[in-house]
């Protein structure tokens, strides 16, 4: 059985989301995937082909003004030709985002990704972690410290560069990459068995 192909289709305005994309990739590779980073604002025809042959696509964007960035929305609209043929139907999908505020309406960005995936007939993979940092004995260094379920959510202070991305958020993104890859392996085994 060949390794699942996972692509991380993302936009990063200031480098914070790129750090998370790298973490998703690292988690996916650790779980045995062939993983590709694709900057959606610089996407090439070759990279569209990689997305088309991927078993899973993980969407990533900063949350700006309560939704994914404009560059990611442009990419989302550009997938309409794949939507028309349901070319991505049956693939796995997941998502991650970052904003300057603890909440920052990140859930709306993750729901945008979920809707995009649903329109393509994709299967959404959630984060699969209980919330961290929610008791007096918990720590901001817990995985899923912000308590999101739909995907990986991160918070970086607006006066810090990419080096300021919280280590717990990086670890949470790595977890997402592993989880999506493990789910892809499960789907592949199921197809073989069927």
TrEMBL record:
<dbReference type="InterPro" id="IPR029039">
    <property type="entry name" value="Flavoprotein-like_sf"/>
</dbReference>
<dbReference type="InterPro" id="IPR008254">
    <property type="entry name" value="Flavodoxin/NO_synth"/>
</dbReference>
<feature type="domain" description="Flavodoxin-like">
    <location>
        <begin position="6"/>
        <end position="154"/>
    </location>
</feature>
<dbReference type="Pfam" id="PF03358">
    <property type="entry name" value="FMN_red"/>
</dbReference>
<dbReference type="InterPro" id="IPR005025">
    <property type="entry name" value="FMN_Rdtase-like_dom"/>
</dbReference>
<protein>
    <submittedName>
        <fullName>Flavodoxin family protein</fullName>
    </submittedName>
</protein>
